[in-house]
Each structure stands twice: as structure tokens, then as C-alpha cells.
Write a structure and sequence with these properties.
Blueprint lengths: L1 H4 L5 H17 L1 H7 L7 H19 L8 H19 L9 H16 L4 H11 L15 H23 L5 H22 L1 H6 L7 H5 L5 H10 L4 H21 L11 H20 L13 H18 L1
Helix pairs in contact: 2-3, 2-4, 2-6, 3-14, 4-6, 4-7, 4-8, 5-6, 5-7, 7-8, 8-9, 9-13, 9-14, 13-14, 14-15
Length: 315
């Protein structure tokens, strides 16, 4: 029960965290399953961090027709509302709208775990780069260096947000590089999996110079999307980028041993399952234009069960 996990917090705040849990369960199956391996007090905080990232992402990718200010204005409003919540404290009564509820839970999490607010401002700055028609907008990234600069805000920052919640056995600063690398590894996996969806939004996150080395450009990717067939040059490019992605996981995974021992099984589960998406892309012969690579449910449960057993034996 969420009230038990929150240690008897107010009904209003519990409702905000319940919404965050529902968002995580619906949209982040891999993360939600991994979160079940965490201790009960940590789970609501992780749900709040995930829900915040989700509502911001949806603001950019799925703007509603009745959004008053457009995606760019909505991002500014989210930042303003979060700054107010952090400066003035969590409201005593839970408001009705979904976003404010998520921000209520997020502000409580930030304050409770003393998370540096700049990680959230960096995340919002990167999201502004995804809004078409603005000065910040970037529809293409020429090099892996450029893409990683974007991911520092959009993905590495999320790893840094999580660190105080998870806890470390070393000073937090020592664990930050690996946490940032794991966030980047997760997001590059997303970009590979979601190549077709991003094309539909006019975006290509995969670095154009890495693609060009295999004679792949935007026109060829668009052709593959239109025909539903992955051309051989694109297969080779995706295989190359998957190798780069796996290197990021190799850099990040040793950092799991720097975390509190009680949270390591959950993070290992998330890393194993998310990197498993790369295996599924390969298994489907790189057909990323007609299907979304997903780790089968039985494998997700098997990996989680193995880590749960390992964690139980350590207690």
C-alpha cells in the first residue's frame, strides 16, 4: 500500500504518489518491475521521478489541443510550478489536475532526498531542444559528441536525480559518472528502438556522421519507414550503433557496485532488461520500422526473479 510505503504521510500527498505509481506502471514496464525490487520507502520517490520525466516527455511529443501555451510555454510553466513548489513547500491540499499532482510528489521527493534541483533544470533545457519552431530545437545531431551533450540533460541528469534516492557506499560524486553513463545507455537504447516513431516526428537522434559512414542518410531512413523494410546499409549502421550502446552499458554497469547493496538488484535488473532491447532488435533482423522491440514478459519476470532471489539471500 502506498500509505505504508510513505510511512503514514498525508492523504493528499499519498494520492499524488499513487498517481505517479500508476504512470510508472502503465508507461515504464521495465523500470516499474525493477522498482519492485527496491525497499518500500524508496519506491514512491522513484515513481515520482519517472512520472515527472513522463509528463514532460508527453508535453513535447504529445501536446494536447487545449494546451494553453504550446509545448515551449508548457515547459516554462512546468519549471515555474516546480520552482514555486520547492520554494514554498508542498501544498497542504492536493489539487485536481494531473501535472500538479505529479509536481507535488516530485517536490516532496526532491526535498526528502536532498536532490540537487539543477538536474531538473538541465532535463527541462534538453526537452526544449525537442520542441519544433523554437530557437532551441534540434532535429538532427551530427556527431556522437553532440548527441551526448543533449543526453547529459535528457538522460544523464535522470541518473543523477536517482542517486540520492538509491544511496551509495562511496561519496555521491564518485558514483555520478557511472550513473550518468547508465542514463545515457538507456536513452540511446530508446533512440535505436524508436527510430521509426522519431522519424514520424521529424527527428533523427542517431548521429548523422555515424550513419553516413554506412552510406545512410535521412532520405534512406524515410524510405525504410515508408516501405517498412530495413535496407542492408541501415542494418549495418544499426549494428554499429548497438555496439556503441553496449560500450556505454559496459562503462556504467561497474558503477552499480557503488550503490547501496539493497538497491543493486533493482538497478541490475533495469540494466539487464533495457540492454535486452538491443538483443530483440538484433533478433528481429533490425526491423525497427515496422515493430517496437520489447523484451518478452517471461524474460522480464525471469530476470527480476533471479535478482530478487539474489537480494533475499543477502539479507
Amino acid at each position: 500500500m502506498i500509505e505504508v510505503e510513505l510511512g503514514g504521510r498525508s492523504t493528499e500527498l499519498a494520492a499524488a504518489y499513487r498517481l505517479c505509481r500508476a504512470i510508472a506502471a502503465t508507461h515504464g514496464r521495465t523500470y516499474f518491475l525493477a522498482t519492485r525490487l527496491l525497499s518500500a520507502p524508496r519506491r514512491p520517490a522513484v515513481h515520482a521521478l519517472y512520472a515527472f520525466a513522463r509528463i514532460v516527455d508527453d508535453t513535447v511529443d504529445h501536446p494536447t489541443l487545449d494546451a494553453e501555451h504550446g509545448p515551449a510555454g508548457e515547459l516554462d510553466l512546468v519549471e515555474k510550478q516546480l520552482r514555486v513548489a520547492l520554494e514554498q513547500g508542498v501544498p497542504s491540499a492536493a489539487p485536481a489536475d494531473r501535472r500538479t499532482l505529479v509536481l507535488t510528489a516530485l517536490a516532496d521527493t526532491i526535498q526528502r532526498y536532498d536532490i540537487a534541483p539543477q538536474h531538473f533544470w538541465a532535463f527541462l533545457d534538453s526537452m526544449r531542444m525537442d520542441v519544433p519552431g523554437t530557437a532551441h530545437f534540434r532535429a538532427r545531431y551530427a556527431t556522437m559528441t553532440e548527441l551526448r551533450a543533449y543526453m547529459r540533460g535528457s538522460a544523464a541528469a535522470i541518473g543523477l536525480q536517482l542517486l540520492p534516492v538509491l544511496g551509495t557506499v562511496v561519496p555521491v560524486a564518485e558514483a555520478e559518472p557511472a550513473a550518468a553513463a547508465l542514463g545515457e545507455a538507456f536513452q540511446l537504447t530508446n533512440f535505436l528502438r524508436d527510430t521509426a516513431e522519431d522519424l514520424d516526428r521529424g527527428r533523427i537522434y542517431l548521429p548523422t556522421d555515424e550513419l553516413a559512414a554506412f552510406d545512410v542518410d535521412a532520405d534512406l531512413l524515410t524510405h525504410c519507414r515508408r516501405t517498412g523494410h530495413t535496407e542492408q546499409r541501415v542494418r549495418r549502421a544499426l549494428a554499429h550503433l548497438i555496439a556503441i550502446n553496449r560500450d556505454l552499458y559496459r562503462i556504467a554497469n561497474p558503477g552499480i557496485d557503488l550503490l547501496d547493496p539493497r538497491v543493486r538488484p533493482a538497478i541490475r535488473t533495469a540494466s539487464t532488461l533495457y540492454s535486452g532491447i538491443l538483443d530483440e532488435i538484433e533478433r528481429a533482423d533490425y526491423e525497427v520500422f515496422t515493430r517496437r522491440a520489447v523484451v518478452p514478459r517471461q524474460r522480464r519476470l525471469r530476470v527480476a526473479a533471479a535478482e530478487f532471489t539474489s537480494a533475499a539471500l543477502r539479507i
